[in-house]
UniProtKB/TrEMBL annotation, chain A:
<dbReference type="GO" id="GO:0006352">
    <property type="term" value="P:DNA-templated transcription initiation"/>
</dbReference>
<keyword id="KW-0238">DNA-binding</keyword>
<dbReference type="InterPro" id="IPR013324">
    <property type="entry name" value="RNA_pol_sigma_r3/r4-like"/>
</dbReference>
<keyword id="KW-0805">Transcription regulation</keyword>
<keyword id="KW-0804">Transcription</keyword>
<dbReference type="InterPro" id="IPR039425">
    <property type="entry name" value="RNA_pol_sigma-70-like"/>
</dbReference>
<dbReference type="InterPro" id="IPR007627">
    <property type="entry name" value="RNA_pol_sigma70_r2"/>
</dbReference>
<protein>
    <submittedName>
        <fullName>RNA polymerase sigma factor</fullName>
    </submittedName>
</protein>
<dbReference type="Pfam" id="PF04542">
    <property type="entry name" value="Sigma70_r2"/>
</dbReference>
From TrEMBL, chain B:
<feature type="compositionally biased region" description="Low complexity">
    <location>
        <begin position="234"/>
        <end position="246"/>
    </location>
</feature>
<feature type="region of interest" description="Disordered">
    <location>
        <begin position="227"/>
        <end position="246"/>
    </location>
</feature>
<protein>
    <recommendedName>
        <fullName>Tetratricopeptide repeat-containing protein</fullName>
    </recommendedName>
</protein>
<dbReference type="InterPro" id="IPR011990">
    <property type="entry name" value="TPR-like_helical_dom_sf"/>
</dbReference>
Amino acid sequence: MREAYETNNKLQVVNAIKDNDSKILRTIYANNYPKIEALVLKNNGTKDHAKDIYQEAFLAVWQNVKQDKFIPVSESSVNGYLYTIAKNKWMDVLRSQGYKKTIVASQLQHFEIKDEENNGIDDDILKDKRLEDVMLAFKNLGEACKSLLRKFYFEKKSMNLIAEELSLDSASTRNKKYRCMQKLRQIVLKN
Amino acid sequence: MNDLNDISQEEFEKIEAYLHGELSGDEVVSFEDLLKTNPEFKTKFEDIKAVLTGIETQSMKEQLDDFHNDVQSSESELIVNEPKVRSLQWKKIAVAAVLIIGLGSFWLFNGSSNDKLYSEYFLPDPGLPTTMSSTDNYEFYEAMVDYKRGKYETAISKWESLSKAKPNNDTLNYFIGVAHLANKNENLALSYLESASKNLEFPLIDDTYYYLGLAYLKDGNVEKSKESLEKSTLENSKSLLSKLEK
């Protein structure tokens, strides 16, 4: 019984993340932020640093779950994973050139994670050049296409629902989606 | 990505259907065959896949600032960090208050038995520790000081103005509700406590249900009162509930 419950629970978290369930994602976001903020503030960072680092980490966790690179067993394992990634990211910032000059090694003592633990956990898909290009192109895509594609691929609404919203039949909606994709790919190519 | 225009709508939809797991078994086999044998098709496939991931990721990214609006204050963090202090104070004050109220209620209250029960159990939440040095929630804690001094009206008006900016903040809703209740306005308290109880992750959820139960009791709605008390794990809730069941 308990096992069944846990399996169910695990599937729920994974499915919610894969479906971009904004209610659940919002909760995960809000629950984990304070810990990261505290960590960054304690270690020479500002609130803005904390927010940037946290959002990067959040996206990475979300993508890794989507791509089955990380399979959480429960919501608390998502929390732990998110914390570790954010912590690693902040550590990378502190180690980077800009920070090295100003920070003495002893100030890094709060970090207890050893290097070998980091390996493999943060294979950051967001650094992929092609993905970055597409993201930038989509960011600047005209609102009509942007909103159509967002409904399909992010909100995962059904074809029928979207067609209804646009007052079009489904063939025209599909064609419109195709043309928006072409437009987006053209912008990616130009850049 | 070189031969942009040679992805036809049909090809595109096929790739999309494959990625979304919408192809039948046979179709999957022939699709994967094509991927293996036709490098050009494979390139198109990778391209569409990257574009779809990009759309999704950028959409998610654009939501994050909105998510962030929920967390900009670190109130809930403070609550989580100080449960020990809080519960100790709670117990001491509770013991003292139950004695005082218990003795007092013998001659003060001649109302119905539910009113008596309410008075026996109601005690304002002791509030949060107000150490202001390291917090930017100055206004929140300033109102907390008023609240602790029993200036409920002042505290309520300060919190309500904060609440306009953050209508869904559970900590604010909780304390505004409790302050209204302490100020003998159970009607006003109900809606705030109801909103605070919507978030099951709220660290004070048990207290919220307890006070919600008390507010309904004061309001004369015994059924609703029991419903809320049942959801709270506090000892006080259980003992009040058992008296209501009699």
